[in-house]
Amino acid sequence: MQQREEKQLEASVESLISRVAHVKNALHSFIYKLENEYERLTWPSVLDNFALLSGQLNTINKLLKNEKTPSFRNQVIIPLLLSPDRDEDLAKLTEQRVPVFSHEIVPDYLRTKPDPEVEEQEKQLSTEAARIGPEVAQKQIQTLNKLCSNLLEKLNNPRDDRD
C-alpha cells in the first residue's frame, strides 16, 4: 500500500514538473517577444499568449484537483542541507535564481503563508470592505458601471461626438 502511494506521488510530481516546464517555456517565449519584438507585437498576439498561459495554468489546477492526484498538502518539505556558501548545482537547477540555500532564505522559499505585510494589507482591505456595507457598495458598483458604459459609448461612437 505504501509503495503504491509513493509511486502515485512520484508520478504526480513528474506530471506536475512537466506541466510547469510547459508554462515556463511559454513565459520565456512571451517575455522574449515583449523585450525584443515589441514593435511588431499586436494586441491579438498578446491576448493569444495570455490565453495560452491561462490554459496551461488551468491544466495544472485540474491536475492538482484530480481525485487521483495525492494531496500535496500532506507532504512535508524539510531542507536536509543548509549552507551559506554558493551551491553551483542548485544555481544550475534554478537557472541562477537561487545560488544559496541558507538559514536566511529558507523561511521565504518554504513559506506556506503570505508575507506578514501582505497578510496585514489583506486584513485592512477586508476590514474596509466590511465597513462599507452592501448598500453603499452596490451604489458604488452602479456608479462605476454607469461611468464605464458612458465611456464605452463615447469610444464606440467617436464621430457622433465630433460632429
TrEMBL record:
MF annotations from Gene Ontology: RNA polymerase II cis-regulatory region sequence-specific DNA binding; transcription coregulator activity
Keyword Transcription: yes
InterPro entries: Mediatior_Med8_fun/met
Localization annotation: Nucleus
GO biological process, one term: regulation of transcription by RNA polymerase II
GO cellular component, one term: core mediator complex
Keyword Nucleus: yes
Subunit structure: Component of the Mediator complex.
Record-given protein name: Mediator of RNA polymerase II transcription subunit 8
Gene: MRPT
